[in-house]
């Protein structure tokens, strides 16, 4: 039974109650599973992302339970934790609860809850990128935070085999790749030291947690903090490692997870022959990273250059700025706003928010030059030129790998590996995957 909002002429919640009561009285059904979307309307609510509140399907489930005497009611949609489930059941809103993505993220959720270890449950962040996002493209489903999903045969399920010969492992960089490498290596019995040059764990993933409605990423990072502490991983923050430091550490294995850095040259793929945007060196030009870490506050009227097809660094930062009362205009070569987010069923809801917050999007358009406060824009269909005035330019472009330390260690007599963005700038799920795969071989 869909709990989606009725369309004009559609069924109301009262209509659905009447239908279900009719069926229930005649013993024509055993249970009702209450979803929140449909394939015709509110499609994004079928598997709702973090754009929707917790326990999304509970109000409708409670309404149906009021009129049913025999059939059982199952509540679903964003009931992610044992505490969520217990609360729903305790209040009598349903007879059962459905927890799907959270048990993909951690297939041991029930056992951990039964054993009184809820803090050990790996949290789902409702990103939809590799579960329903992959299924909608006709691939097998996996999970961004748990790459063992669909690799159970290859990786012995979601378990960590103990290493035959424990080693000392040095991991440099505490973004997604470094965190997962350190956690899995420590679970295997290795003695692990994790070094991070900033004052917090998470790398750029922590910046993403500061975007609107993406706070659940922070919950995942807190889980890593808890797991690393339990596994007695030595965590050294605010420490920059040099090649000499790495060699002197004397670890049996060294894993470089230094990630990537924001590119500041304004390169756009539609101009492959132009390596640097004219005017990009101006003082009022910054990156999405500068905005999210708070080091730079752009002016009131912001032009955001999106060369990544609306992926979260671009769209999420635009929404962040709009909520901070900036006027935001996105310029993108893409033909659709937030195009890449459609892969995770978050594109439509992101575009809705962009409209609500007044974010303007210039599609099929490129930035030809930036002259202080004047943007020279070109329509990629017609070639027509236009100039517009802005206070600041924010760059959302592909990062550059930070491979400096790895390169400095070449030729040293150490066991050296590198993974994640330090190899090539990509999305977080690749970092988690490569980290798990590598740590299982150490």
> How many E strands?
18
Shape category: flat
Tally of contiguous helical segments: 15
Q: Biggest β-sheet, characterized?
A: 5 strands, parallel
Mean pLDDT: 95
Summary?
29% of the residues lie in helices and 17% in strands. It has 442 residues and is of the alpha/beta class.
Give an overview in words.
The structure is a single chain. Helix content is 29%, strand content 17%. It has 442 residues and is of the alpha/beta class. A five-stranded parallel sheet has the order 6-5-4-7-18, covered by helices on one side. The protein has 15 helices and 18 strands. It is flat. Helix 7 runs parallel beside helix 15 (428-439). The chain has helices at residues 13-25, 58-65, 82-90, 101-105, 109-114, 132-135, 176-187, 204-208, 216-230, 243-249, 288-292, 312-323, 347-356, 404-408, 428-439, and strands at residues 31-34, 72-75, 96-97, 168-172, 191-195, 234-236, 253-256, 260-261, 285-287, 301-306, 327-332, 360-362, 365-371, 374-379, 385-389, 392-396, 400-401, 416-418.
């Amino acid at each position: 039974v869909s709990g989606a909002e009725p369309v004009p002429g559609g069924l109301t919640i009262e209509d659905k109650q009447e239908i279900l009561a009719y069926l229930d009285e005649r013993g024509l059904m055993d249970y009702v599973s209450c979803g929140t979307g449909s394939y015709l309307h509110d499609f994004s609510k079928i598997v709702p992302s973090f754009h929707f509140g917790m326990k999304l399907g509970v109000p409708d489930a409670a309404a149906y339970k009021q009129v049913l005497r025999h059939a059982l009611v199952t509540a679903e949609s964003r009931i992610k934790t044992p505490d969520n489930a217990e609360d729903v059941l305790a209040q009598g809103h349903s007879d059962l609860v459905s927890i799907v993505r959270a048990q993909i993220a951690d297939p041991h959720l029930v056992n951990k809850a039964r054993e009184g270890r809820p803090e050990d449950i790996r949290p789902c962040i409702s990103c939809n990128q590799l579960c329903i996002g992959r299924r909608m493209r006709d691939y097998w489903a996996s999970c961004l935070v748990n790459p063992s999903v669909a690799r159970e045969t290859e990786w012995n399920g979601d378990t960590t085999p103990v290493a035959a010969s424990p080693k000392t492992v040095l991991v440099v960089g505490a973004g997604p790749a470094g965190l997962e490498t350190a956690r899995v290596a420590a679970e295997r019995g290795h003695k692990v030291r994790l070094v991070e040059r900033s004052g917090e764990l998470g790398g750029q993933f922590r910046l993403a947690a500061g975007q609107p409605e993406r706070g659940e990423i922070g919950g995942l990072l807190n889980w890593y903090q808890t797991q690393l502490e339990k596994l007695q991983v030595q965590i050294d923050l605010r420490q920059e490692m040099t090649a000499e430091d790495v060699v002197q550490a004397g670890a049996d294995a060294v894993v470089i997870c230094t990630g990537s850095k924001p590119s500041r040259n304004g390169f756009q793929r539609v101009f492959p022959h132009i390596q640097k945007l004219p005017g990009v060196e101006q003082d009022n030009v910054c990156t999405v990273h500068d905005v999210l870490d708070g080091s730079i506050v752009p002016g009131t009227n912001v032009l955001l250059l999106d060369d990544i097809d609306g992926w979260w660094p671009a769209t999420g930062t635009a929404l962040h700025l709009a909520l901070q009362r900036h006027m935001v205009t996105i310029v993108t070569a893409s033909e659709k706003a937030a195009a890449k987010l459609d892969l995770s069923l978050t594109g439509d809801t992101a575009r809705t928010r962009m409209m609500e917050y007044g974010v303007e999007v210039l599609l099929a358009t490129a930035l030809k030059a930036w002259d202080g406060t004047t943007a020279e824009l070109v329509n990629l269909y017609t070639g027509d030129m236009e100039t517009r005035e802005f206070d600041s330019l924010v760059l959302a472009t592909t990062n550059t790998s930070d491979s400096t330390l790895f390169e400095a260690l070449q030729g040293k007599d150490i066991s050296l590996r590198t993974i994640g963005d330090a190899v090539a700038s990509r999305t977080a799920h690749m970092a988690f995957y490569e980290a798990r795969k590598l740590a299982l071989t150490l």
